[in-house]
Amino acid sequence: MKKQIILIMTDTTRKDMLGCYGNPQMVTPNLDKLAEEGIKYENTYTCQPVCGPARSAIFTGTFPHTNGVVTNCIAMGDNVKTIGQRLTDNKIHCGYVGKWHLDGGDYFGLGKCPEGWDEEYWYDMKCYLNELTDEEKVKSRQSSTSYEPGLTEDFTYAHRCSNRAIDFLNRYKDEDFFLTVSYDEPHGPCICPAPYNTMYEGFKFDDNPNFQDDLSKKPFMQQLWSGDDINKPIEMLNKPSKQLALFLGCNTFVDHEIGRIINVINEQIPNALVIFTSDHGDMLGAHRLQMKNAVAYKEIANIPLIIRGGEKGKTINYPASHIDIAPTILEYIGVPVPKILEGKSMLAQIKDTSVKINDVVFTEFTRYEVDHDGFGGLQIMRAAITEQYKLVINLLDSDEFYNMEKDPYEVCNLINSDEYADIRNELHDKLLQNMNNTRDLYRGYQWACRTWRKDKKPTWENDGYTRQRENEEYEPRQLDYDTGFPMKNAVRLKTTNDKKN
User: Fold this and answer.
1) Does the structural domain 4-358 have CATH classification 1.20.58.1000?
2) How far out from the chain centre does Cα 337 lie?
3) For a Cys staple, 402 with which of 76, 139, 155, 390, CB 3.0–4.6 Å?
4) What is the tens place of the pLDDT at every residue in 361-393?
5) Residues with catalytic annotation?
6) 185 with 103: CB under 8 angstroms?
7) Are 410 and 210 in contact (CB under 8 A)?
8) What's the N-to-C CA distance of the chain in angstroms?
């Protein structure tokens, strides 16, 4: 059987923007059908809830703090290899159609195909703009374009991405391949034609306790982020608006475009592995916050993940993470998973949903974007999440701990609760260990010595280890500082000849 994988991504799709995740008001028939025919993950977390860093984890299999894309508009280093490069080097044809956001350019990208991907099918947003007249470029960035009578789906980025992806599928249906289709939609400006542009007029989400969160027991940065919304009544935070209606309409439009691709898959390569996810969500007024930033709230961090190609019609509640997508793809294709990857293959779980891959998953934040002075600037956050609990360490602020079983809306911050101290501290230890295991360049005693963790004392040596990089597929083994010879153990106590003498 051919090894064929299609990864489909959208930008800024929350779980509750899909009907299959329990919101019948959302019109997403194609993704709902995909979930019926595959596996739906309830507790999948992005590695950083902002575009570039989220994508960096998906396509390198390493956290943003490892691959260097800790904020938007920072490029990966030359020694950071994507899954496209790894597969291409193993004779697997790799196509990438759509938004990339990993080349260090601005929002649209550089229009240049990176190593490991088929140049003929490369189509980032700069390529799309290059096809447009100057007048059309402006129209493509204005929400009002969606209401122009002459607008058709042919004009949209989503439709043109689908066309290229369909051409790739028809052309290479008899070969092994990995294809990514990365839509910008439903991200603003939410360009979509009728009837999608007006189909959600009058819609609002169901009221819930997190719209009433006054943030009084939350980090100061959240209070600052909320701005004027902090004092607004719930009916002002959760209400119908033209902007929300267009956003959700664009979400249904991109579901339609995804349906075009799924139809071709069903006709040409029905046994292919199909993966759908989104990079992050949007707060949309929950907790009195808008857009995304350094929080681990489920509205932006707990994203949809649907996989077809294993068991059918199943739901998995175990924690899952974007960090596991790359090793899953490699194992499925039959390429050895290198040591440097920081996730685990989910393939066994896809075949048997009773298998548990993760007890805990991790997410992080460093900065929203290099270009922006706003959005809070530097906001260093690390979080550890289980099926029931969530610990969020805000390095420059106060921390958070939630029991999501009793408090699914994450309103009650239990960080100082004696009742949960043992569970909180155990999760804290796992977070610190993950920072060490992944060589988090921001690790230090400050993460351990929190006001609520009295047993942790600062030390200049921290844990006292050196943790050298292992990437022997593309680099020679790093050298031991003390000997100049290739290191024997990547992790070892740091003792130098100078200290010995």
Assistant:
1) no
2) 20
3) 390
4) 999 999 999 988 889 999 999 999 999 999 999
5) 51, 101
6) no
7) yes
8) 61
